[in-house]
Amino acid sequence: MSLTAIATEILKHAQALDVYIAEHDLPQPSFDRDGPAMFPLPGHAPDSLHKARTALMDASKTIYDLTEGPTNSVMWGSIAVSNHFTSMTLRALNSFCVADAVPLTDEGASYAEIAAATGVDEEVITRIVRHATTMRIFDEFCPGRVRHTASSRAMKENQLLKEAMKPCLEEGFQSAAHFNEAVAKFGGVEECKTTAFNIAFDTDDNYFTFIQRPEEQHRGKYLAGMMRYMWKYGGTAGKSHTAEEVLAGFDWAKLEGGLVVDVGGSHGSVEAALAPLHKELKFIVQDLPPVVELASANFNQLLPNAEDNCRVSFMAHSFFDPQPVKDADVYFFRHIMHDWSDTYCAKILKNIIPSMKKGARIVIVDYVLPDPGSAPKTPADGENRCGDLFMMSLLGGKERGAADWHKLVKLADDRLKILNINLPDNQVYGVIEIALDEE
Ligand SMILES: C[S@@+](CC[C@H](N)C(=O)[O-])C[C@H]1O[C@@H](n2cnc3c(N)ncnc32)[C@H](O)[C@@H]1O
Fold it and tell me: How much is the pTM?
């Protein structure tokens, strides 16, 4: 394909999006301080437009990589050099609260003022922020002074973003740096206590046990923030990871007065969305004791309506122990299985089976990766693959494709059967419905 042909594709998709934006009186995409914080395409827009957006990102990345050239795109185009310094800069901005140090005014702040407000050496913060401006985070509108862009403004105003960045930039970034040592020391990745995370944090505890320690519990709070961020805003492109998918991906209405056990349900964001829509359902959210303590204390903020709130209860339970709640209609797992290798996932599933009544379902919401080679090389695809590496370096977990899910379910118990993988077009997040074969 010639460069002109790719550019023509770009033009076609950009025009489709521009027309929709103009016709619906939506804000123009912009990095200006007052520009929209998110790409202004609503989730309910026609699928063709979500596809146009993904295709636009794909074609733009292709033309960028091509014009950089194959060799230089490896050396300079983020793989060899930029990625870890991007993370270094984002981590510094996030943990030194740099965005908070710049007011939302035309004058912004000088580097000296940012240094004074953050307590970081002026030369250090200047160099970090100058790198950030290349990512359109802050604008150095005159030498020595920066003001906000839409991206830095989001880092100032969006508390969920501040929290969601942390697991990626702390545990994720540091584990990534120790990946090779972990491979050399431990070999494979089936075990959850012999990972890059274990080397990076010099611990024999697995990641989840580690973040339960009293002095490390802030990490658990940030993980919950990251989950809530994905639930609210989705992934790079499209609606993946959002509430809409879970609500639409399973026929909740058919349960009629049933009980849903959300295993590893963290702070109950799924219930906060489901309970108001399905008044006949009751929910039990299970998680590790410190998570449950925090979650139940704060659940009123997520779901203030008392009538809905009282149908949701919390229970401390480890999914590595037999499931204590018998005869629920659905045992629900969102973002759980991808944390663990097949060996551990099989244990988690086996622990549910003795509690399953006739007709009960296990419902898993997790990645269903496209078959290798079948996905366009979009940033979203890169994000999914990064997710896979993140899970591998943290806990030996992994993202799975449809064939992997079938294999895993059989490994857990021959009687388990996947009835349906509901994977909306253009998405990587699926709702997997599993039954016991004996019906
Ligand atoms: C990636 S988060 C997903 C949370 C939630 N399901 C969601 O989608 O927002 C994984 C959750 O598993 C919980 N978890 C980890 N180990 C657990 C265990 N042994 N038993 C129960 N929950 C556990 C963590 O505390 C965390 O809340």
Answer: 0.90
